Fold this sequence. Notes:
Elements: E1 6-10, E2 13-17, E3 39-41, E4 50-55, E5 58-64, E6 79-80, H1 88-101, E7 109-118, E8 121-129, E9 135-136, H2 146-161, E10 164-165, E11 174-177, E12 180-183, E13 190-191, H3 199-216, H4 221-235
Antiparallel strand pairs: 1-2, 2-7, 3-4, 4-5, 5-8, 6-8, 7-8, 9-11, 10-13, 11-12
Amino acid sequence: MAESEICIRERASAMLIHPDYKGRVTEEWFDADAWGKQARPVSSGGRGGAWFLRAGADRLVLREYRRGGLVAKVSLSAYLYTRESEVRSFAEFRLLNQLVSLGLPVPRPVAAWYRKLSPLQYRAAIIIEQLEGTTPLADLFQTMASDAWALLGATIRQFHDAGVRHADLNCFNVLVRGDEFFLIDFDKGDIRRADSGPGWKAQNLSRLRRSLVKVSGGESEALQQRWQSFLDGYGHTS
């Protein structure tokens, strides 16, 4: 077990906790109702199931893992259990710890949890530190200057140069604070080997562009200009 995590097990559930939060996090932290007025739903993007939390002086985000598409009609939050290392909350917690150690702009993980519902099913959640003072890229599309788009391109290139694949790079998973950009929601993300080929990077960029087209209401000359500024920044980073 890595030094950047503490594992606690109790009956059918287990938690990973960052050492900085040792002795504070309990299983109750993963129940939004238990927080009362200290929990506020996150409204931007996603499928719901996320809350801003106030834990004393700390500002955190709780996110439940929820399914989308047709499968959500069968089960919104239950996932197939194969082995603990593949539990989505544990995998994301450990990936975020790696990205923090690489100096990449992501939120620090606080704790991850899962509970087995049966031998073959589990539900899970993760708590991360809130990136205060940030705004989703989706809300800034119309006002962001060309040099900021170039900075965003350079930031995405940093992740790609480190082999980091974001599984759903859309404009709600990019947060902006001044001239800083952060990526969030690394569910199903990973770090690719250097010999894995460039295809996943192109797919990442294509996913982001489709998201921007959707948010902006369709293709336009303004979108093309902003995207070119993004590509200039992406291409000029070593």
